[in-house]
Design goal:
Oligomer: heterodimer
Structural class of chain B: alpha/beta
Largest sheet of chain A: 7 strands, antiparallel
Low-confidence stretches of chain A: none
Low-confidence stretches of chain B: none
Strand content of chain B: 15-25%
Radius of gyration of chain B: 14 Å
Number of strands of chain A: 9
Mean pLDDT of chain B: 85
Mean pLDDT of chain A: 86
CATH class of the largest domain in chain A: Alpha Beta
Distance between the termini of chain B: 16 Å
CATH superfamily of chain B: Response regulator
CATH architecture of chain B: 3-Layer(aba) Sandwich
CATH class of chain B: Alpha Beta
Largest interface: A-B, 18 and 20 residues
Strand content of chain A: 25-35%
CATH topology of the largest domain in chain A: Alpha-Beta Plaits
Order of helices and strands of chain B: EHEHEHEHEH
Radius of gyration of chain A: 17 Å
Distance between the termini of chain A: 58 Å
């Protein structure tokens, strides 16, 4: 059995919804307009990835579960009908850190998600963290399986959100 | 030549911890990292830092609690503490504002978003 990869911690998000916006051959910067529309509504984006190929741009984002209808509306109306929106309810983010730039942290965890038949709706790497978008109800099972690959500090329980920052409307 | 100063960075945002650690290491500080208040205490007891950069909003034990405990402990009260306050003062429903942070016994306070060069200057001022 391969050695455990040491980690500092793991955390879960609250229950979220995923929106996947796709557009064929959009004008340069079209995704910025979508993001500006979301920012104008002061929406928190818990996860965001943008991919652009020659003929297609895809924006994946996670918002609070009660805001997904607004994202769908903004994608359909405010952004000029450029985007098609596919949404997935009840997703969660599983984030672990620090990855210390070890590529095997990504490859071994992806292999484990596949072997466990855990859905992966998105993956993103940042300076220190690796985040998977999976089914909210599977977060516990996913974290248990990941302990076969990663070594966490003693007595570590994945952090769940204890607070949520929301804009105050006056 | 003076000994390398030891900084403990504590925040539940791993990317911010890494960014701060990289910046401080580039200025020849020795840096250790913790991701919540409980883990920070373990790191302090294992290897006492000269200064801590401490977030206020954290799971398990927040920055205010940890700061109070450090400043009340004769063995550790000399550790300089710089608090990172994250939420704008305009958000009236939280107790994690810059204004709230100033009520603690911390040695200095930095509101997020952080200017890394100013933070390094503040670290030097508090050592």
């Amino acid at each position: 059995m391969a050695d455990l990869i040491p980690l500092g911690g793991m955390k879960f998000s609250e229950e979220l919804a995923l929106a996947v916006l796709s557009a064929d051959v959009p004008p340069i910067g079209a995704e910025v307009n979508v993001l500006k529309a979301l920012a104008g509504r002061q929406m928190n984006l818990f996860y965001l990835s943008v991919s652009r190929s020659v003929d297609r741009t895809r924006v994946c984002l996670c918002v609070a579960a009660d805001q997904i209808k607004l994202v769908e509306w903004l994608a359909a109306e405010a952004a000029g009908g450029l985007w098609t929106c596919r949404s997935v309810n009840s997703v969660g983010l599983l984030t672990f850190f620090p990855h210390e730039r070890r590529l095997e942290a990504l490859t071994r965890s992806l292999k484990l998600f596949a072997e466990s038949r855990l859905p992966v709706f998105g993956v993103a790497s940042t300076l220190s963290a690796l985040t998977f978008v999976t089914a909210f109800e599977e977060l516990g099972r996913a974290s248990q399986r990941l302990r076969e690959v990663f070594g966490l500090p003693d007595h570590h329980a994945p952090f769940a959100p204890e607070f949520r920052v929301k804009p105050v409307t006056r | 030549m003076s000994a390398q100063k030891h900084i403990l960075v504590v925040d539940d945002d791993p990317d911010l911890v890494e960014a701060l650690a990289m910046k401080l290491a580039s200025k020849d500080f020795r840096v250790t990292k913790a991701y919540d208040g409980v883990e920070a205490w373990e790191k302090i007891r294992a290897d006492k830092p000269d200064l801590m950069i401490l977030d206020v909003m954290m799971p398990r034990k927040n920055g205010y609690q940890l700061c109070d405990e450090i400043k009340a402990d004769p063995q550790y009260k000399t550790i300089a503490v710089i608090l990172l306050t994250a939420v704008a003062d305009a958000v009236t429903t939280t107790s994690y504002t810059h204004h709230d942070g100033k009520k603690t016994l911390a040695d200095d306070y930095v509101p997020k978003p952080i200017d890394l060069d100013k933070l390094v200057a503040m670290v030097n001022d508090n050592l």
